[in-house]
Amino acid sequence: MGMLYVFVxxxxxxxxxxxxxxxxxxxxxxxVDDDFIIRQVVTRHLALLGHQVDSAGNGAEALVAIEKNxxxxxxxxxxxxxxxxxxxxxxxxDEQPLIRTIVMTSYVTIEAIMACLREGAFSFITKPLGDxxxxxxxxxxxxxxxxxxxxxxxxxxxxxMGLMHERSYQRSRITGRVL
Length: 179
Prior knowledge:
By secondary structure, this protein is α/β, with parallel strands linked by helices. The chain has helices at 2-21, 36-48, 59-68, 85-95, 110-118, 133-175, and strands at residues 28-32, 52-56, 73-77, 100-105, 123-126. It is built from 6 helices and 5 strands, in the order αβαβαβαβαβα. α3 packs parallel to α4.
């Protein structure tokens, strides 16, 4: 119990230090892990960073949650009952290609890492998580990609609105009527 207390205290100190130094864009994140304690620690950590976080106990529950919500990032374990992380990765790659997936597992081999990356994982971290610093680094990279995608979409929307406005102005000059 004493070791857990030390971990929690160090974790809160890191979160507070991190939150003071960074202004983050809130993201919608889904945490998928069959281990309730790990799922709760990661969910609370991400919520303290200002993100909207939901959780699921396996890949099948995750797919149901993804159908109902608009997640930008999924943090998933690989070894789970019902539907494991490999199958979830493949389904996300095929059905939701804009979702960034961070894989966390304690079964670390070069083959496993390469398989995850081939199946569409954005990043790969190992368990035990320790102070969540590795998760924070992966999340920061994923956040940058999501922010870049949002900015590109906003630029395209502004461009489209500008072109629509310009076309209606040109039509009004030709016909003499304000559209």
